[in-house]
Amino acid sequence: MERLQANSQSVIEKKKRYLIPCMFHFYKNPPLMVRGEGVQLIDSSGKRYLDLYSGVSVNALGHCHPEVTAAICEQVKTLQHTTSIYLTEALVDLAEALAGVLPGNLSRSFFCASGSEANEGAALLATLHTGRNEFLAFQNGLHGRTKLGMSLTGLSMWRTDPHPVGGITMVPPPHCKQCPFGQKYGICKFECVDAVDKAIQSSTSGKPAAMFVEPIQGNGGIVVPPPEYFPRLRTVLNKYGTLLIADEVQTGIGRTGKMYCMEHWSFVPDIITGGKALGGGTPIGYFATSDLIAQSYTRPGASTFGGNPVTAVAALTVLRIIQRDDLVSRSAELGSFLRAHLENIAKRYALVADVRGLGLMQGLELNGAGRKPAAETTDFVLEAMKDAGFLLGKTGPSRNVLTFMPPLIVNENQLRDAADTLERIIREL
Ligand code: PMP
């Protein structure tokens, strides 16, 4: 334990000195992570943690999956980098493999190195295809930390830029349990969809290029829309010739119990963006679209690292294993298992105001007296869970949503242990 303190402390001091100060970390006493094995992370003292946040939805196969590691090592020994101006095979094979799992007619991809870059590329593609330059996005959404990605982001915490890009109109996300229009799902008139129509008329030229949406808002606090939302939204957007871009950076590749989250509602967006889990821990981003829309982007495009051989073989291996081991169904089944345990906790403690999510993407909203967001208690629980050996996430505009996004290889016992420990910590508050 002493060694942990000394090590963490010296790393924190160096971090404070040499990194740009915006780089923050979770926890008052952050462990220094030195190793990952399957669902576990191991710190410098040898303490083991169940990683139930997967590096924010990245480690779908857990840490250092032997087959992914072997594929990476083999590729590193053979060919590491050429850039996309040279012909290599893995990049093309990856595009083919993605076409096999993307919904509907989405069959053409462009690879880059991060989710932010993927959204930048999708915005460019939408502009090229429509000849327009305005965008719509959700309040409480998150699309990246580049100039445009941040401007498309509707969470004040992540909108650091005091001079965001113009031409972006924010609309309220569908959040039935906390309906911004004070309506009730089941008897409402989808005022949230009308709001998009009104926003286009009142706050844009009437010709936005595209609307960015997260199918489930991740950093926004695991907000799941009602099934009618996207089909109805499509009808409105079609009136204006506006494309729909689904940012599946966080929700993609099995996380929610479907390969892509939009499949829950049989909805095919015009463009999907992705990243995170596909790379198996290597940096990746991509945007994918239909044949028709892809034809609008013919001037030379390149990416130094996009689809590089090491990342491409890692991603190919991730996709192969997810399909071979049917991890998408596993995500749906284990998600229901986890959800039942979390709902059980919610029934017994007033602190837990809501449980929501799909598959292995679940959030637990904590509210205090007068339904006020319990951000400090959330921090306390997060730290206590870490001390007990469980790593969770924290999301939501008020930072009060405990978030589970475990590797898809997690098992029932691990989820049960985590839920039992969470219950004990909440009981002892
Ligand atoms: N979109 C979503 C939905 C995300 O969750 C994130 C990252 N959390 C991004 C985009 C940005 O991805 P990256 O950090 O890889 O640039």
Structure keywords:
single chain; 429 residues; alpha/beta; Aspartate Aminotransferase, domain 1; Aspartate Aminotransferase, domain 2; 2 domains; seven-stranded mixed beta sheet; four-stranded mixed beta sheet; 16% strand; globular; binds 4'-deoxy-4'-aminopyridoxal-5'-phosphate
Question: How does this structure look, described?
Answer:
There is one protein chain. The mean pLDDT is 97. The protein is an alpha/beta fold. A hairpin with a 2-residue loop joins strand 11 (352-358) and strand 12. A seven-stranded mixed beta sheet has the order 4-10-9-8-7-5-6, with helices on both faces. 38% of the residues lie in helices and 16% in strands. It is globular, with a radius of gyration of 21 Å. Helix 4 (89-101) packs parallel to helix 10, helix 7 (191-203) runs parallel beside helix 8 and helix 11 packs parallel to helix 13 (412-427). It folds into two domains: 2-52 and 326-428, Aspartate Aminotransferase, domain 1; 68-324, Type I PLP-dependent aspartate aminotransferase-like (Major domain) (Aspartate Aminotransferase, domain 2). Residues 56, 114-116, 119, 142-144, 214, 218-219, 247, 249-250, 275, 285 line the site of 4'-deoxy-4'-aminopyridoxal-5'-phosphate. 4'-deoxy-4'-aminopyridoxal-5'-phosphate (PMP) is lined by residues 56, 114-116, 119, 142-144, 214, 218-219, 247, 249-250, 275, 285.
